[in-house]
Amino acid sequence: MNRGVDNGRNGVVECWSADTCITPTLYHSNTPPPPTSRAVSASERANLARKHFTKCHLCHHHCGANRSSGDRGPCRTGTDARIFSAQIEVSDELELIPTFAIAFSGCDLRCAFCITGKESWNPNAGELFNATALAERATAALEDGARSIMILGGEPTIHLPHVLELVALLPDSAKLIWKTNAHGSVGARELLDGLFDIWLADYKFGDDRCAERLALVTNYTEVVRDNLLWANQHSELIVRHLVMPGHVECCWRPIANWIAENLPTTKVNLRSGFWPAWQSRKHSELRTPVADTESKLAFQIAHEYGLNLIQ
Ligand code: SF4
């Protein structure tokens, strides 16, 4: 995995965009730059990411909010970050657990069925972010046998400057998981390039109308697909889909079809443990768990398309 910024093409350093180029003075240098550790890259990029606080384009809402001066975009988030959970988790993918999972409060989506809606919709929930303390706890967890460190939310993309500050304090050898809703912007993912070993990305809706109705987001499928394709090229990718009642044909089948055509070997975790949490009851089809017949149909579809299912 590329831990640094040299793309390996004769010392030409990738300059992603005018806003995010992290080594502009090295661009088109004839001298290969020295290897850069993940910690150093993350520290440099944290400074660049903070530019988004005055004109935020971290997620695909691209609202341009000046978060420093009190403007708030759809994520309702300012410049502070808070953590609503930081602990060992054992209910994620088998190959990742036990993982030390750090959950940032706040999110740019408004999924009515969010299992952590109270914290995910409220960036003021939880304890104030402390990079040093979290890095110490995460490092201690690794020493005690945790297999990975997972950064999640809410949605961690909206707190990218803080995330990078934290990554800069973690051991380079740590296996890092980026758990995301895959609704980040191109600028955000470029700041993340090469820093995380695995992108664990949700693909929630296969129909933009469902995404608009249930998560208040437009153009969902195009954005998520673009990010998944990028993540697959720049990291290991695991796609997660939560089977929702009444959404197997409109959402899961097109997702399965697209994965089969575009990411045929990518690991897919199809989860059937939907619970009508948070504001699910506002939507008639989301008032119950998934029926056995629907769950079976979802797995049948996965097998029809030959998906690489994991647990
Ligand atoms: S993270 Fe997204 S919604 Fe929040 S301020 Fe930035 S662009 Fe706007």
Give a brief description:
With 311 residues, the chain is an alpha/beta fold.
The CATH topology corresponds to TIM Barrel
Mean pLDDT: 91
* Ligands: iron/sulfur cluster
CATH architecture: Alpha-Beta Barrel
Radius of gyration: 19 Å
Order of helices and strands: EEHEEHEHEHEHEHHEHEHE
Main sheet makeup: 9 strands, mixed
The neighbouring-strand order within the major sheet is 5-3-4-6-7-8-9-10-11
The dominant shape is: globular
Separation of the first and last Cα atoms: 24 Å
The CATH class is identified as Alpha Beta
Work out the helicity level: 25-40%
Number of helices: 9
Count of discrete structural domains: 1
Class by SSE composition? alpha/beta
Topology of this structure?
Elements: E1 6-9, E2 12-13, H1 38-49, E3 82-89, E4 99-104, H2 117-120, E5 127-128, H3 131-143, E6 148-152, H4 160-167, E7 176-180, H5 186-192, E8 198-202, H6 208-215, H7 220-234, E9 236-242, H8 248-262, E10 267-271, H9 292-304, E11 308-309
Parallel strand pairs: 4-6, 6-7, 7-8, 8-9, 9-10, 10-11
Antiparallel strand pairs: 1-2, 3-4, 3-5
Helix pairs in contact: 1-4, 3-4, 8-9
